[in-house]
Amino acid sequence: MSDTRSLPVPDGLEGDRLDAAIARMFGLSRTRAAEIITAGDVLLDGTEAGKSDRVQAGAWLQVTLPPPPSAPVPRAEAVPGMKIVHEDADIIVVDKPIGVVAHPTVGWTGPSVLEGLLASGVQLATSGAAERQGIVHRLDANTTGLMVVAKSEIAYSVLKRAFKERTVDKRYHTLVQGHPDPLRGTVDAPIGRHPAGDGRWAVVGDGRSSVTHYDTEEAFRAASLLEIKLETGRTHQIRVHMAALRHPCVGDMLYGADPTLAERLGVRRQWLHAVRLGFDHPTEGRPVEFSSPYPDDLAQAVEQLRED
């Protein structure tokens, strides 16, 4: 069922193109916003307008939004290479391989952690949306490493709160281009959708608060191995913040990495691994911590840099 919204153009969008303004106001990609405008589903002060028209603050918008796509239904499907690091009555900790998302999403046809666990007969918490049962945090498809999934309802509730309150210790290792200056620091910069509306995220003034701590573990001629501690968990946060420092993750072409260096090191995705995960057990209260070794492709890249 479509949804019609009527509201004025905010002052902060004065002079923006109509498609860019619609994208910002409703959290759409710019391409999707343009499609809605072209279909005649946007009125500006009561008349149809073109996607490149400039908007004025206070002008009245009437936008008919299409219904959201229906969420995919999880199916039990084995995930090769996914390892179970720990399991008890309340939680299961997995080491996620490359090319696997946390849960099914619209447009994704590959494997997911959720479906892999269902295939192995694991009973997960049913709180939250059906397509995300038990999932309390996520990793990008091509980011490997540790994820905790809730099996009991109380674990789901406690872990969701722990992630929200930033009491979970999430540590990542990433190989970035060049040498950050200073070698240890904090990036405190808000993240939102990239103005281009092409699926990227970026540091933007009206984005959500995002805090990343980094420390150089090892420096090489052309790159640095960093340990990252996240306070927040925004989409692509480490990748966006490293790119904002002009030290993108090696192999991360979406955010400006050098393809020549990636090719030389045999890296075909962003060099980013969730190496440690620590939190208070949701029912026992005791602190627990888990660690994950680098997968072969990332380990080989580091070894090559050391040899160089």
UniProtKB/TrEMBL annotation:
It catalyses: a uridine in RNA = a pseudouridine in RNA. Keywords: Isomerase, RNA-binding. One of its GO terms (biological process) is enzyme-directed rRNA pseudouridine synthesis. InterPro entries: PsdUridine_synth_cat_dom_sf, PsdUridine_synth_RluA-like_CS, PsdUridine_synth_RluC/D, PsdUridine_synth_RsuA/RluA, RluA_PseudoU_synthase, S4_RNA-bd, S4_RNA-bd_sf. GO terms for molecular function: RNA binding; rRNA pseudouridine synthase activity. Its EC number is 5.4.99.-. It is an enzyme of class 5 (isomerase). The active site is at D140. Residues 16-74 form the RNA-binding S4 domain. Pfam families: PseudoU_synth_2, S4. It comes from the Bacteria. Belongs to the pseudouridine synthase RluA family. Responsible for synthesis of pseudouridine from uracil. This is Pseudouridine synthase.
